[in-house]
Design brief:
Blueprint (H helix, E strand, L loop, with lengths): L4 H36 L4 H12 L18 H11 L8 H18 L2 H17 L8 H15 L12 H4 L2 H23 L4 H6 L1 H14 L1
Helix pairs in contact: 1-3, 1-4, 1-8, 1-10, 2-8, 3-10, 4-8, 5-6, 6-8
Length: 220
């Protein structure tokens, strides 16, 4: 084996972990925002907008471009990932874990249904055309994204049961925002799989993912 090949392979290996960590952090950010919105009707608009925009970026030059090209846009997701995959048990929240696992599971089901994938692509294209007339965080577009989740994603598996304050959850605006966030979670779950993420990655490479997330957080 040539000595010159080792650094190149190592670089590719680390790049794969970076991309897997970025996409998994985005899924964790979705889970975090869904929880905050459903419990307290609180949400950072910049974090929310980053996730909505990620749905629309279907031909990125690289993984980070999907999230606006800045690691700082995924700060909450990286912190959530570290808290839930790290060794500090007191920081783990089973509700967050349930949301993440459910999103990854729904995406796996979706990947096996070509017709649903085609429908999903067509509906997202319709939303992309709406961007010529509405802002990404307008109620019109949020409603459109929410309907994609309700019509295409939710029926393919066990629906994700969102826990929270009933008074908050019964408001139509909040329902649309939560469903739009869950659609963004599916988008990032698709990316997670495309960059090599698998369930066994979380099981057997957890320490490496956490270490990568910590490095990315410092760089954000």
């Amino acid at each position: 084996m040539s000595a010159k090949r080792i650094p190149t392979r190592l670089k590719i290996f680390m790049q794969e972990y970076n991309e897997q960590t970025i996409t998994l952090a985005a899924v964790c950010q979705v889970a975090n925002l869904v929880q905050r919105l459903s419990r307290k009707s609180q949400m950072n608009e910049e974090e929310f907008t980053t996730l909505l925009k990620s749905i629309m970026v279907t031909s990125p030059q690289n993984t980070l471009e999907v999230y606006g090209g800045e690691l700082s846009h995924l700060t909450i997701g990286l912190k959530t990932l570290i808290a839930h995959l790290g060794n500090q048990a007191q920081q783990k929240d089973p509700e967050i874990t349930r949301y993440v696992v459910s999103l990854l599971s729904l995406e796996r089901r979706l990947s096996k249904q070509p017709k649903k994938l085609n429908q999903l692509g067509e509906r997202i294209e319709q939303c992309q055309r709406q961007l010529a007339h509405y802002e990404i965080n307008s109620e019109t577009l949020i409603s459109s994204l929410a309907s994609i989740y309700s019509d295409i994603i939710s029926p393919i598996g066990t629906p994700i049961q969102v826990a929270g304050n009933p008074e908050i959850l019964k408001q139509t605006t909040n329902q649309h925002r939560i469903r739009a966030l869950l659609l963004a979670g599916i988008r990032s779950s698709v990316l997670w799989r495309q960059v090599g993420g698998k369930r066994r990655t979380i099981l057997f490479s957890r320490a490496k993912i956490v270490a990568c997330a910590e490095q990315l957080l410092k760089a954000s």
